[in-house]
Fold these 2 entries.
Entry 1:
Amino acid sequence: FYLFSCLLFIWTLPKQHFPSQNNNNLYDFVEVEEPSDGSILGRWCGSTTVPGKQISKGNQIRIRFVSDEYFSYEPGFCIHYSLLMPHHAEAASPTMLPPSTLPLELLNNAVAGFSTVEELIRFLEPDRWQLDLEDLYRPTWQVLGKAYIHGRKSKVVDLNLLKEEVRLYSCTPRNFSISLREELKRTDTIFWPLCLLVKRCGGNCACCQHNCNECQCVPTKVTKKYHEVLQLKPRIGLRGLHKSFTDVLLEHHEECDCVCKGNTEG
Ligand SMILES: *[C@@H]1O[C@H](CO)[C@@H](O)[C@H](O)[C@H]1NC(C)=O
C-alpha cells in the first residue's frame, strides 16, 4: 500500500548534440535514481531509445534532467507516470510482521481500504479474528462506545452501514441545473427552457481512501444524452423568430470518484 510509481516514457534532445550514444553521455541527459539506495535506474539521451517502465521501491523517485547551454533543440523530454497501489494482501506479506506493528500512518492507509468490519479485523488479527469479532459485538460495558450506552441499548452500532452511507452521499452524480447558452456556447439562439437538469459529480471528498491531503471529486464515467427543447432564432432579413424543436447534446456524469488533487490518472 505504499509503493508508488514511475516513468514509462522519456526522450531527450536530438542525438546530433551528443558526442556519443553510450551511457556516459555528459552534456544532455535524463537520469532516474532510486532514492532509497541511491542506485541509478538508468540514464538516457538521444531520441532513439525510449526507456521502459521504471518502478520505484518506495514512494519517491528522483528524476534529474541535465542540459548545457549549447544547441537547444526541441522536443525535450516527456514523462508518463502513474501511482501503483499494490493489493493489501501483498503489502502485509513481505515483512511477516503483524499489521499492528506498522507505523500509525501506514496502518491508517491500510485500514482505509477495507469495506467491512469483518475484513478489517481479519487483516489485523489473522489468527483470531473470529474471536475478536465476537468480543467486539458482545455487550460488555468496557468495549462499548457511547452510542450504545446513551440510547440504543438493544443494538450495537452497524459500522458497515455507516461506511456505506458515507460512500452513498460523498462525491456522487447529482442533479445540476445548467444554462444551455453557457453549456453549448450558443449566443446566436434562444432556448426554452433556458436551463436543463443534468447529472454531474458533486459532494465533498474527505480523502478517506487515499494517501494524500486533498481530494477532489471527478467523473469516471461520462455519457452524452439528447434533450429536446424549443429553439428561437432571428430570421435573417425578416421579421419575427424562427421557432422549432431541436435536440441538444449534454454531458452527464454517470459515475464519480475521489482522487488525490493534482493527479488526474487516479
Ligand atoms: C433528479 O431529477 C430527476 C428528475 O426530476 C428525478 O427523477 C431524480 O430522482 C432526481 N435525482 C436525485 C438524485 O435527486
Entry 2:
Amino acid sequence: YIHIPYLFILLGILGEDALLPAPQNISILSTNMKHFLTWSPVTIWGETARYSVEFQGEYEREYANESWIPICECSLITATVCNITDDISATVAYKLRVRADVGARRSEWGTLKGFFNRITTSLTPPLMKVIADGYHLLVELEDMGPAFQFCVLYWKKGQESRMQQKVVKEVSSVVHLDTMEAGSDYCVKAQTYVEAINRSSSFSQTQCVRAEGGTSMWLVTALISSAGFAVVALTLPFLTWKTSQIFQYSCCPVAVLPDTLKVSEPPTQLILCGSEEAEQCDLMVRVMPSEEVLRLWIQ
Ligand SMILES: *[C@@H]1O[C@H](CO)[C@@H](O)[C@H](O)[C@H]1NC(C)=O
Ligand SMILES: *[C@@H]1O[C@H](CO)[C@@H](O)[C@H](O)[C@H]1NC(C)=O
Ligand SMILES: *[C@@H]1O[C@H](CO)[C@@H](O)[C@H](O)[C@H]1NC(C)=O
Ligand SMILES: *[C@@H]1O[C@H](CO)[C@@H](O)[C@H](O)[C@H]1NC(C)=O
C-alpha cells in the first residue's frame, strides 16, 4: 500500500516521465517482403510526439545479452510508421518496440505483442502484361525487387494439360516465352516466389492473346476479297458491254483494244475487217464471261 501523499511524492520524484503513455496498438504491416511497424499516436495537447524504434533479432536475444538495436531511420520521428524492411534481414523471430518523446518527457517502451517473422509476409501475384508480337508470345512482369522470382505458366488454349513452365529469376523488361502457331490463342498466368522464405503467391489472373495470321485474319481477308470480287464481277460485264458498244462504231481500221480483249484472240482479225463488214466485225468482238475476264486480268 502506498499512502496518497507518498504517491504524489513518488510521482514528483519520477517527474513527468511517468505520465507519458507508451505507444499502443503496435502492429506490423508486411506485404511482398516490405515490412512496416505502425502504432497509434500518443496525443499530448499542442505538442508533437516523436517516436523511436528498436528491434531485437534471434542473434541479439541469444548471443548479445538480449540487447536492442536502434533503427536510425526511425529515431525521434513524427510519423507513426517505420519502414523496418532493411532491418529484418533474416527469416527469424524479431521483437520490436517503440517509445514516445514529448519535449523533455519520455514514455516507456511499447512492445509488439509476440514476434514478427518475415515468413508471414503476404505475397501478391505479379502484375503482368501478355503480348503477342507476331508469332512471339511475350510477357512483361512487374519488377518487385531482387528477392523475387516468377513462375510463369503458359499453354495453347484448349491444351491446358500441356502447360509449360518458365522460371524468371531476373526481370528484364520483356520475357520471351514461346513461338506461337498462327491464329491460335495462348494463355499465361504467373506467381511470385521468394526463395528466402520458400513461399509463393497465388497465381495472377490468366491472360490470353491470339497469334497473328489466324482464322479471324483469314476471315477478314476473305470477306474483303469477296467484296472486291463482287464489285469487279458487277462492273466488268458492264464495261465489256460498253466497250463492245464503242467497237460497234469505231471498230476499224486500227482499234485500240483493252488489254483484256487482246489476250484471248489475235487482234489481226479485228483489224482486217472492212467498214462494209460492220456486222461481221461486231460478231468478232467476243464478250467474255466476266469470270474469264477476271482470271485473265489477274494473270
Ligand atoms: C487502438 O486501436 C483501437 C481499434 O483500432 C482503437 O479503438 C484505439 O483507440 C486505439 N488505441 C489508441 C491508444 O489509439
Ligand atoms: C548483459 O546485461 C547485463 C544487464 O543488462 C549487464 O550487467 C551485463 O554486463 C551484460 N553483459 C554483457 C556481456 O554485455
Ligand atoms: C522501405 O524500405 C525499402 C528498403 O530500403 C525500400 O525498398 C522501400 O521503397 C521502402 N518503402 C517505403 C514506402 O518507403
Ligand atoms: C520449400 O518448400 C517445399 C514445400 O512447400 C519443400 O518441398 C522444399 O523442400 C522447400 N525448399 C527449401 C529449400 O526449403
